[in-house]
């Protein structure tokens, strides 16, 4: 989707930006430019400084030194109010919407007169922006009734309604389905053609290289690569992000053993308003990774909840190492040796306001490992938390760091580290690498494989088909809540994708 390389005037210039947080240098003399009518991807590992740099541009973070130039005007520091007035808009990874308000009311929030967007003339202007950009959404719809993809459109509309000429998007596809991602990219390309500058903060290399005109990579707070997207390969960008060459392709997997660790027998979920899982049966052997593939919304959530103990089955049974755990809850299954990595870290896995130490206890308390008699062993809990932080490279965090202060990717690293630390026999991993950079993805994949090499087993439920193909011994395809097809390792991507789309085995 890139255009031929051309010289575009810089709309935003960040010059020699440095920012320390305590003893951690988050940005170290970083230079960055973004032009009107250009998509510029900003890449890097979690904690590399991507979001911090753009928070400097938008005024959330004041640099210790350096200069900001926007549309020819120089600033030593921004504030969000000054940035928005100048023409900079930012869409955050976690949306900042009032869910009880309508789309129009959310768009109006923060404008000079909140009531402006509610007048007929301004509703007409909002509708014109919607038509011009392709950001189709009903201005009268209540935000809490909208899916994630449409909520993101509301955030973009907020920025455009305020006259933004530079749009910063922080991990915009992290919570989107593939279809929603395609729709977003069409909108961004239309905005680019209309002259809007776009900065895309992401860790997804394929998206960055297909959509962007230029890519910049940060590593440890420094710029290590900045080139036209058409002149670099995915491997070059990945190596720049982590400072070394990465493994690629399918991983070597251990040979499964004969022992069955987890067996589902005609497992069906109750009606909950989402697509139920229906009559799911499989046997998972020690040393095996069973991949569950499917288009989002085909029963994966219900199946994960059934396996983890969040839902009790409406029918069927689940056996863990020969023991019926169908009526056990999450705590009982963890004690029996089944750990769950949830798909939504913020609502299912973490208490965001609490420190990491307490969040580690949240996921492991049923094991009783931090009790000394009737008392909590705070020292042991703190030590385990520090070990998780260090092992998974959660930069700048301590045991007292609130979970909400971590980036989305580092939140996911912590959840994976916590559940793996429970030393379970079976792991139910739901999108375990969502929001992670390439280096962290490689690390988590290696830990899952090592778990199987030690005789454990994994149920991998992922919307990332490439992840399922690379890691699984076998693949089950879910379609409308049922197993529609089964494929061995080495199956063609096209065949699995066809089964996902149609429910018919190729």
Explain this structure to me?
This protein is α/β, with parallel strands linked by helices. The protein contains 17 helices and 22 strands. It has helices spanning 50-58, 80-86, 103-108, 120-133, 148-161, 178-193, 205-211, 234-242, 300-308, 330-336, 345-349, 356-364, 378-391, 408-420, 438-453, 465-471, 493-502; strands at 10-21, 24-35, 39-44, 65-70, 73-75, 88-91, 166-170, 197-201, 214-219, 222-228, 260-268, 280-285, 289-293, 315-320, 323-324, 338-341, 371-372, 375-376, 426-430, 457-461, 474-479, 482-488. Helix 12 crosses helix 13 (378-391) and helix 12 packs across helix 14. The mean pLDDT is 90.
Task: Supply the key terms.
single chain; 506 residues; alpha/beta; Rossmann fold; 2 domains; six-stranded mixed β-sheet; 34% helix; globular
CATH architecture of the largest domain: 3-Layer(aba) Sandwich
With strands numbered from the N-terminus, the spatial order across the biggest sheet is 6-7-8-3-9-10
Helix content bin = 25-40%
CA distance, first residue to last residue: 31 Å
Structural domains: how many:
2
- From the alpha carbons, calculate the radius of gyration and give it in angstroms: 24 Å
Strand content: 15-25%
The number of helices is 17
CATH class of the largest domain: Alpha Beta
Please state the structural category: alpha/beta
Average pLDDT confidence is 90
Instruction: Give a count of the beta strands, DSSP E runs of length 2 or more.
Output: 22
CATH topology of the largest domain: Rossmann fold
Shape verdict: globular
CATH superfamily of the largest domain: P-loop containing nucleotide triphosphate hydrolases
Low-confidence stretches: none
Largest sheet, described in full? 6 strands, mixed
